[in-house]
UniProtKB/TrEMBL annotation:
Major location (coarse): nucleus
GO molecular function: hydrolase activity; metal ion binding; nuclease activity
Protein name as annotated: DDE Tnp4 domain-containing protein
Transmembrane segments: none
Boundaries of every DDE Tnp4 domain copy: 83-250
One Pfam family here: DDE_Tnp_4
InterPro entries: HARBI1-like, HARBI1_dom
PANTHER family: PTHR22930, SIMILAR TO ENSANGP00000010363
UniProt subcellular location: Nucleus
Keyword tRNA processing found: no
Keyword vocabulary terms for this entry: Hydrolase, Metal-binding, Nuclease, Nucleus
Amino acid sequence: MEAITSTLNSPIYLASGQDVKDVALAYRVGMETARECIHFCCRAIWERLKNQSMKVPSQSDWIEVAQGFAHQWQFPNCLGAVHGKHVAITAPGNSGSLYFNYKLFHKAFLSTRFFNICCTDCQYVLIDVGAEGRQSDGGVLKNSKFGKKLLQGTLDLPPAGFLPGTRTVAPYAFVGYEAFQLRKDFMRPFPAKQLTDENRVFNYRLSRAWRCAENAFGITAARWRVLLRTINLKPKNVDYVIKAACILHNFIMK
C-alpha cells in the first residue's frame, strides 16, 4: 500500500499543481506522509533518468548543440542558452530574508532554481537548483557547479573554430542576458544606448537563440503545473520537485 501511494502521489502532484493537503486527502494519508512520498518519488525519478535524459555533455555533445543553434537560429558557435527562474516556496522557519527576492515574495531560484542551459529543441542540457531567492542571477551562475567549472575551464568545451563560410576563428560561447558577466565564453546583448545597425542585428540574433531557454521553462511549467504555484515543502524537497519536472520534460521531449 505504501509503495502504491508513493508511486501515485508525485506525478499527480507535479502535473496538477495540487496542494500537498489535497494529495494527502485524496489518498487518505497524513500531510507528512504525503510530503515524504512526493520527495521519495521525485528523487527516484531524478536518479533514474538523469544519466539517460540529462547526461554530462562531452565535447562532441557541445559541438552538436552548437550545430543546432547555427542551423535553426543562424547563431554559430553557441553552446546553449542560459536563463534563471524563480519558483515560489513557503519560506522555511527562521530563514529571515534568505529566500526573499526582488519580486517581494519568498522564492527559491530555479537555475535553469532554476538556472538552466538549453539547446535548440528546448531541452535542458544542464540545470542547477537550490540557490536562495535573494541571490542575483549573476551570483547564482558564479556560485553554481556549472559556473565554477566554466571559470576553471573544466567543462570540456570545444576549441575555437571557424565561423560558417569564413576564415574567422571565434570561440564557442553561451548566450545570456544583461544580468550575466560578459566573458570570452559567455555573450550577452549590446547595451540599448547608441546601438549601431550591426549591434541591433546581433542583439536580435542573440535574442532568438536565447529564447530557447525561456521557451523550455514555459513548456515545463505548462506540463508540470506545480512550478506555477507556491510550493509548500522543505527547500531540499523543492529541489527534487524541480529536478523531477525538468528531467521528465527532457524525457518527454525526446
